[in-house]
Amino acid sequence: MGKYIIAGNWKMNKLPSETYDFVKEVAAKTAGAACEVVCCTPYVCLAEAVRAAKGTHVKIGAENLHFKDSGAYTGEVSADMLLDLGVDYVIIGHSERREYFAETDSTVNQKTIKALEKGLLPIVCVGESLEQREAGVTVSLITDQIKAAFADISADDAKKVVVAYEPIWAIGTGKTATADQAEEVCAAIRNVLAGLYDADTAAAITIQYGGSMNAGNAAELLAKENIDGGLIGGASLKSEDFSVIVAAAK
Ligand code: PGA
Questions:
Q1: Residue 71 — very low, low, confident or very high, per pLDDT cuts 50/70/90?
Q2: Nearest of 213, 250, 245, 244 to residue 228 by alpha carbon
Q3: Which of 5, 9, 63 to probe ligand 1 with, by most ligand atoms within 8 A of CB?
Q4: What is the pLDDT of residues 117-173, one digit of tens each?
Q5: pLDDT band at 186 (very low <50, low <70, confident <90, very high)
Q6: Is residue 193 classed exposed, middle or buried when 0-12, 13-18 and 19+ CB atoms within 10 A define those classes?
Q7: Ligand 1 atom closest to Cα of 235?
Q8: Does any ligand 1 atom lie closer than 6 A to the CB of residue 233?
Q9: What angle do CA 74, 15, 230 make, to 5 degrees?
Q10: I want to staple 218 with a disulfide (CB 3.0 to 4.6 A). Which of 95, 112, 229, 248 is the partner?
């Protein structure tokens, strides 16, 4: 299955002035990790994060990007800007961006294409709401989200995409999907990818689970066949907790 990747998603937490020391702490506490370790930070923290990660195994990611190359888009940040800073990863289509910032399956696809074209590694988020889960449409909804996100992306490029399955009802709520619930959807995602491409391509794609993953539940989730890592919000803000999750990914 895909390469194991544990990525922190700081969201709108931590200050630029806190970033250098924190990333250094993460690097020290996760030294020798068996998986890729990524800190995704707010735009204003990225330069300090890259400076701190330099010469360590830690990779830095952004939490968003714009799909245009450049131009009159006040307040937006392009792939070239992120690359110029030394950023490797970028989260695309997080449910909070879909909900509060009008991201759609179409913008997620455009951003994923742009990231790949420029050489950033996209972490593409998909997930269902509680209503959708209770209505029994989880797999069909996620199938649609995956198909839309990967539209016009070649098999070679698809292998560079990380998919994060994040049930919206589990994000920041302390309500984790059970390992079986998470595995069921991650396996369904792998199936959809195998249909879009082929089994080898689907097997090469890293599929993360995200949603209240923490030091206590990470090992059980990460033991599942189709869960190749985690996208971690709250628990990525404490280096101790984050390092326990990283240690569980092998
Ligand atoms: P959480 O957030 O770990 O705080 O639930 C995960 C995410 O939104 O990526």
A1: very high
A2: 250
A3: 9
A4: 999 999 999 999 999 999 999 999 999 999 999 999 999 999 999 999 999 999 988
A5: very high
A6: buried
A7: 3
A8: yes
A9: 90
A10: 248
Ligand 1 geometric centre to CA of 72 (Å): 32
Mean pLDDT of the residues in the chain? 97
The two structure tokens encoding residue 227: 């869960």
Counting ligand 1 atoms within 8 A of each CB, the residue from 171, 175, 212 with the most, and so the one to mutate, is 171
Q: What pTM was computed for the model?
A: 0.98
Residue 142 neighbours by CB under 8 Å, 6+ apart:
126, 127, 128, 165, 185, 188, 189, 192
> Could you give the 3-state DSSP secondary structure of residue 65?
coil
d(CA 134, CA 111) in angstroms, rounded, equals: 30
Mean pLDDT of all residues in 111-115: 98
